[in-house]
UniProtKB/TrEMBL annotation:
Residues 328-352 are annotated as: Disordered. Transmembrane segments: none annotated. GO terms for molecular function: aldehyde dehydrogenase (NAD+) activity. It comes from the Bacteria. This is Nucleoside-diphosphate-sugar epimerase. One of its GO terms (cellular component) is cytoplasm. InterPro entries: Epimerase_deHydtase, NAD(P)-bd_dom_sf, NAD(P)-dependent_oxidoreduct.
Length: 352
């Protein structure tokens, strides 16, 4: 199979590319000129350097491809230029889908996010539950608009699409908000577990990859939507699981939700003034998203696509091991080279 991937340099996309290459598929991967593509090149992937809104280049690159996996998006709970959410998550998605139609690909797998659904009534909700009245972040709102674009093209032009809506994705390589929280918690940088009663649904990055590939392979998935998530944990149990896996103590402080939300408003105000990310990633968008939670039943995907969810503990163990290995390498690097390492802040674009 010839396969085109957007977001292959991101968290979920990189895992997907590795798996598809291991299965012997030919890969074409879209990347920006500033992206690091050496790992993709090592897999034998052909790199297409272009912007997500370059429809002509996208269409040319997709010609001859059997499947398209669209994972590229701007994912952040705070961003100094909010308009970029719409440029990437709405207009970028529109260009990818229209290019896929023009190129005549057989199947498009769109990896979206459960954040587009807001807070549906009922707990846990599923694919048949009506979406909630609103989303809780700029990211979620932009992804919801992109989702509407996708399904309008499905209804009006026959776009052969299937969409996945993962919950919180865990695994090696995650440096987005969920991964930052894990790292800060086990390094003692988080003073308190947050939103201890709010329930989230978790999944392994390998589960998302498995679901995406099976959604592409199976002939009857066009027009379907799948929630991707297995175990459901409240914030306190999740923090305990992280700390237990890492062998560290759970922070002793307990703050009520209203204090955490108030802090998020203050942090966001400071971030908007200084144009720097908030401490611990605790923005207003992050606070309201986590407070409302994503408590859903993802069993339909496992049943219809034929896979089993990885236990949260196993996914966390793999993630923590990866973080610790990287920390050791970062600590060793200045000693080898005799210089102090510097960190650079890149745009928060991912896949999953």
């Amino acid at each position: 199979m010839k396969i085109f991937i957007t977001g292959a340099t991101g968290f979920i996309g990189s895992h997907l590319a590795q798996r598809l290459a291991a299965e012997g598929h030919q890969l074409r991967c879209l990347a920006r000129s500033t992206s690091r593509t050496e790992n993709l090149r090592a897999l034998g992937a052909e790199i297409i350097t272009a912007d997500l809104t370059d429809r002509e280049t996208l269409c040319d690159a997709m010609r001859g491809c059997d499947w398209v996996f669209h994972l590229a998006n701007l994912y952040a709970m705070w961003h100094p230029r909010p308009e970029e959410f719409w440029q990437t998550n709405v207009e970028g998605t529109r260009c990818v889908m229209e290019a896929a139609l023009e190129a005549g690909v057989a199947k498009v797998v769109y990896v979206s996010t459960v954040a587009v659904l807001g807070k549906p009534a009922g707990r846990p909700f599923d694919e048949d539950s009506p979406a909630g009245p609103r989303q809780f972040s700029t990211y979620g709102r932009s992804k919801a608009e992109g989702d509407q674009v996708v399904w309008e093209l499905y209804r009006t032009r026959g776009l052969p699409v299937v969409t996945l809506y993962p919950g919180i994705v865990l695994g090696p390589g995650d440096d987005k908000p969920s991964g930052i929280y894990i790292q800060d918690l086990i390094r003692g940088r988080v003073p308190t577990p947050i939103f201890r009663r709010s329930v989230e649904t978790y999944t392994s990055v390998e589960d998302v990859v498995e679901a995406a590939i099976e959604a592409a392979k199976q002939p009857d998935t066009v027009g379907k939507r799948y929630l991707i998530g297995g175990e459901r944990l409240n914030g306190m149990d999740y923090a305990r699981e992280i700390c237990d896996v890492a062998g560290v103590r759970v922070p002793w402080m307990r703050l009520p939700d209203f204090v955490v939300i108030a802090a998020a408003y203050w942090f966001t105000l400071c971030s908007n003034l200084t144009q720097t990310p908030p401490p611990w990633g605790l923005s207003v968008d992050a606070a309201w998203t986590l407070y409302n939670g994503f408590d859903f039943d993802g069993s339909r995907a496992a049943r219809e696509l034929g896979f089993s969810y990885t236990p949260v503990r196993e996914a966390l163990s793999e993630a923590v091991a990866w973080y610790r290995k990287r920390w050791e390498e970062e600590e060793d690097s200045p000693r080898r080279h005799g210089v102090h390492g510097e960190e650079s802040l890149e745009k928060e674009r991912r896949t999953s």
